[in-house]
Amino acid sequence: MTGATWGLVASTFAASFVEFVEALTIVLAMGVTRGWRSALAGTLAALVALTAFTAAAGYALSTWLPESLLQLVVGTLLLIFGLQWLRKAVLRSSGLKAMHDEEEEYATQTAAARQAARQSRFGIDTFAFVVSFKGVFLEGVEVVFVVITFGLSAANMPAAIGGAAAAGILVLLAGLILHRPLAAIPENALKYGVGLLLASFGAYWAVEGLGVFTHSGESLEWPGGDWAILALIACWLLISRVLVRYLPRLKPQSTHLKPETVR
C-alpha cells in the first residue's frame, strides 16, 4: 500500500476507535445494570439504522456530485469536524477543559440506569434499549461520516471501511475480554491525533475541490502531491502547540476541573 493509503487506514481506524470506545461504555453500563438482552437489542437496532443511513448517504454523495465538488463538500465538512476535535484537544491539553474520563462516564450511566423506572415492552427494558440505541447510533453516525468522507475523497472505500472495521473488532474483543470500560486507553491523546488527521485531510481535499470553480472543473493539484498532507499535519500541530502554550495566559484556569463525561 502507498503512504496515502496507510494514512487513510490509520485515520479511519483512530477516529472510529475513539467512537467505538465511547459506545462500548454506554452499552456496558446498560447491560450490567438493566440487562444484556435490552442493551444488545438497542445496539442491533442502531446498527441496522446505521446500515441504511450509510447506504443512502454514500449513494447520494457518490452519484449526485462530480469529483471536484465532492472533494470540496466532504473536505470542508471533514475540516470543520476535525477542527472541532482539535479545539477540544487544545483546550484539554492547556488545562482549560476537563479531560474525558470513561470511568466517570460509566459511573454516570450506571447511576442513571439504576434510578430510572422499569418499563418493559415485549420483554425489552425500554430505558436500556433507548439509551443503547441512541449511544451506538450517535457515535456510529460519526464513524460513518468519517468513513464516507475519507473513502469517497480518496476514492478508496475499501481502505476506509477496513480501518473502521478493524477498530470496531478490536474494541469489541477488548470489551468481551475485560467486561469494563477501556479507561486505560489514552483517549484524549487519540482525539488530539485524530483531530490533526481530520483537519489535515479535510484541508487537503477541500483545496483540491476548489478546482470546481475553474474553467475545466477538474480537481487542483497540491505541490508534492500526497506529501502535502504531512506538511499540513505539521502546520496544524505547530498551531495547536502554540495555542496550548499561550491560551492559559489569556484565561485564568479554574481551581478545579471535574473529569469530563460528555464530549
TrEMBL record:
This is COG4280 domain-containing protein. The chain crosses the membrane at residues 6-32, 39-62, 68-86, 127-153, 159-178, 190-207, 227-244. Keywords: Membrane, Transmembrane, Transmembrane helix. Coiled coil: none annotated. It comes from the Bacteria. The lineage of its organism: Bacteria, Bacillati, Actinomycetota, Actinomycetes, Streptosporangiales. The keyword Nucleotide-binding does not apply. The keyword Lyase does not apply.
